């Protein structure tokens, strides 16, 4: 591909979804084309699809991946503190790792929980 096209592609990658939709509308007006799917099947002249951006993840799950046997009590205390669960429920999480400790928390909360659990000796994954 030539440099001119590469520059255009690079600019298209930076568009927001709203800007891409506006671009499609303008292309339809200026060049007299229809970018709807049915028009592309009937007469594939110039189909320009909006560039979609990945949505930023806002909810995270904190997963207790691994618990060393000599650190179980310390980790159990942290799990109880994070979850607010009773001793039996928290022990079930610790004994059955890998297990989700907390679901749907913010990035900041998940990082804090991970830091606390790792300080107690656990291995933690955030998804």
What does this protein structure show overall?
The protein is an alpha+beta fold and 127 residues long. The chain has two domains: 3-42, no CATH class; 60-126, Ribosomal Protein L30, Chain: A (2-Layer Sandwich). Helix content is 52%, strand content 14%. It has six helices and three strands; from the N terminus they run αααβααβαβ. The chain has helices at 3-13, 17-31, 37-42, 72-83, 87-95, 107-119; strands spanning 60-66, 99-105, 123-126. A three-stranded antiparallel β-sheet has the order 2-1-3, covered by helices on one side. The protein is elongated. The two termini are 38 Å apart.
Overall 3D geometry? elongated
Sheet with most strands: 3 strands, antiparallel
Strand order of the largest sheet: 2-1-3
What order do the helices and strands follow?
HHHEHHEHE
Précis, in short:
52% of the residues lie in helices and 14% in strands. With 127 residues, it is of the alpha+beta class. Strands 2-1-3 form a 3-stranded antiparallel β-sheet, covered by helices on one side.
Defining traits:
alpha+beta, 127 residues, single chain, Ribosomal Protein L30, Chain: A, 3-stranded antiparallel beta sheet, 2 domains, 3 strands
Protein topology:
Layout: H1 3-13, H2 17-31, H3 37-42, E1 60-66, H4 72-83, H5 87-95, E2 99-105, H6 107-119, E3 123-126
Antiparallel strand pairs: 1-2, 1-3
Helix pairs in contact: 4-5
């Amino acid at each position: 591909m030539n440099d001119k096209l590469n520059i255009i592609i690079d600019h298209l990658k930076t568009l927001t979804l709203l800007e891409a939709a506006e671009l499609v509308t303008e292309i339809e007006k200026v060049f007299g084309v229809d970018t709807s799917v049915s028009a592309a099947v009937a007469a594939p002249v110039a189909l320009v699809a909006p560039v979609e951006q990945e949505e930023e993840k806002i909810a995270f799950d904190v997963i207790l991946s691994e618990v060393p046997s000599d650190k179980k009590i310390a980790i159990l205390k942290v799990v109880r503190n994070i979850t607010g669960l009773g001793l039996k429920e928290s022990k079930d999480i610790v004994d059955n790792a890998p297990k989700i400790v907390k679901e749907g928390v913010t990035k900041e909360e998940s990082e804090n929980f991970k830091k606390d659990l790792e300080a107690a000796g656990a291995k933690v994954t955030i998804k």
